[in-house]
Specification:
16 helices, Rossmann fold, 456 residues, seven-stranded parallel beta sheet, alpha/beta, binds adenosine monophosphate
């Protein structure tokens, strides 16, 4: 059964502020400290519904501010009906596909809930389960979890989901990509029937529609920036070159980018390690982040990157999902992804929180089909960067023909540009978050607790 979907209901004016959103003072104060004044479109449109307790489907990708869109109403709901945290029985459950995303969500709850007397914890695999068991046993209000570890804890009766009032399935499409469908279905059966359910996904393929129909009832539905609309502010380019030149080309583009952080995507874990070694030989300090690294090593690499100690981070898709680092000015698709949607997620790591960003895709002859799939998905050609020392003339001449989904088979060529080859859609210009707010200079939230006054 397809859920009944209400059309996008609210058209908040561009001047909607957080103060207009009926959020309680302790939340407003935490937002003000983060310098958040203007809600992003997903926030402005979803928060009123969620405060009413409606079930919800949000079609939004990372970078749109969707975490606060669900975290703020959850905090408000729980704070409005205070209840002592019960051992092993959280009142809100957020499921995230990867450890990094779960940790990121945990940080958001810590930040936005710092003036509320609520507790939360984050559980994921790859780390010692003991401390997670102890924290759950003391009782937390909000549990953020990856599916596998949550099922382990549930099977061993260290957590029970029968008191969950709000359930969030975040990045549902990614969950299915990662093969979590059975875990998710099982987790849903453990939830009480009376609850508020939210599903967020960047895309809405039929499998997600099916999942939604078993999860939400009469949901409100809000859609922002569908995945086929690649993040507007990103200046995208494709660079045709030979596979053997990719590393040198990376060093070249890195040197052209004197400021900012550079995030590089590769397909294979071993390639990430190899590339870090190659870059070191060229005098570029880089670190790798991928699924074979321990959680501690991933966090360390991320912190070094965030702090600018290594300006280059080489990542695989799985590890990159939750990366929310301000100041990434360039994303390099060193290898094109097998799934075209991953391209959108990858480049969405730059131009976050209203800042500008650039994305360069390296494409060797074996990757032409992948490029075509990406262009079909985003329904536009990615401008070709010809002016670089590794341009493989032969490859460039063989211009692929692309069907952009409108039935017209067009020759791949750069669109008329205003930025030295860079693509910038005409609608660009305003901040994605409405212009007046600042996404910069935000204090990082620390620890796993909401605020100093929290119980233990
Ligand atoms: P998300 O899509 O939830 O991963 O959020 C993307 C980034 O936007 C994060 O760095 C948030 O801290 C930031 N952000 C979220 N909401 C706002 C807002 N209203 N104003 C400024 N920055 C925001």
């Amino acid at each position: 059964m397809t859920p009944t979907l209400t059309p996008t209901p609210v058209s908040p004016s561009p001047s909607t502020t957080f103060a207009d959103l009926a959020l309680v003072e302790p939340i407003q104060r935490a937002l003000a400290e983060k310098n958040y004044t203007i809600p992003s479109p997903i926030q402005a449109q979803s928060i009123p519904y969620l405060l009413q307790g409606r079930d919800f489907i949000g079609i939004a990708q990372t970078g749109t501010g969707k975490t606060a869109a669900f975290a703020l109403p959850i905090l408000q709901r729980l704070a409005a009906n205070p209840a002592p945290a019960t051992s092993k029985r959280p009142r809100a459950l957020i499921l995230a596909p990867t450890r990094e995303l779960a940790a990121q969500i945990g940080q958001s709850f810590a930040t936005y809930g710092r003036y509320l007397k609520l507790t939360h914890t984050t559980v994921f695999g790859g780390v010692n389960i003991g401390p997670q068991i102890r924290t759950l046993s003391r009782g937390v209000d909000v549990l953020i979890a990856t599916p596998g570890r949550l099922m382990d804890l549930e099977n061993q009766r260290h957590v029970s989901l029968d008191k969950v009032e709000v359930f969030v399935l975040d990045e549902a499409d990614r969950m299915l990509d990662l093969g979590f469908v059975h875990e998710i279905k099982r987790i849903i059966t453990k939830l009480p029937p009376r609850r508020q359910s939210l599903l967020f996904s960047a895309t809405m393929p039929p499998a997600i529609q099916d999942l939604a129909s078993s999860l939400v009832h009469n949901p409100a539905r809000v859609e922002v920036t569908p995945v086929s609309t690649t993040a507007e502010r990103i200046d995208q380019q494709v660079c045709f070159l030979n596979r053997g030149d990719k590393c040198r080309a990376l060093v070249h583009f890195f040197k052209q980018q004197p400021d900012g952080l550079v995030l590089v995507f590769v397909r294979m874990k071993h390639m990430a390690n190899k590339l870090v070694e190659q870059l070191a030989r060229d005098g570029v300090q880089a670190e790798a982040i991928h699924g074979n690294k321990s959680q501690a090593a991933r966090q360390r690499a991320l912190e070094n990157f965030r702090a600018g100690r290594s300006r280059v981070l080489v990542a695989t898709d799985i590890a990159a999902r939750g990366i929310d680092v301000k100041g990434i000015t360039l994303v390099v698709n060193y290898d094109l992804p097998e799934e075209p949607e991953s391209y959108v997620h990858r480049i969405g790591r730059t131009a976050r929180a209203g800042l500008d960003g650039k994305a360069i895709a390296f494409c060797d002859t074996s990757e032409r089909t992948l490029l075509r799939q990406i262009e079909r998905l985003i329904r536009r050609p990615i401008p070709v960067l010809k002016d670089h020392p590794f341009a493989a003339a032969a490859a460039q001449d063989a211009a692929p023909r692309v069907d952009y989904g409108n039935g017209i088979d067009r020759v791949h060529r750069p669109s008329p540009n205003r930025n030295g080859g860079g693509f910038r859609p005409s609608s660009g210009g305003g901040s994605r978050f409405g212009g007046a707010r600042s996404g910069e200079g935000q204090a990082r939230s620390g620890g796993s607790r909401f605020g100093g006054r929290n119980r233990r």
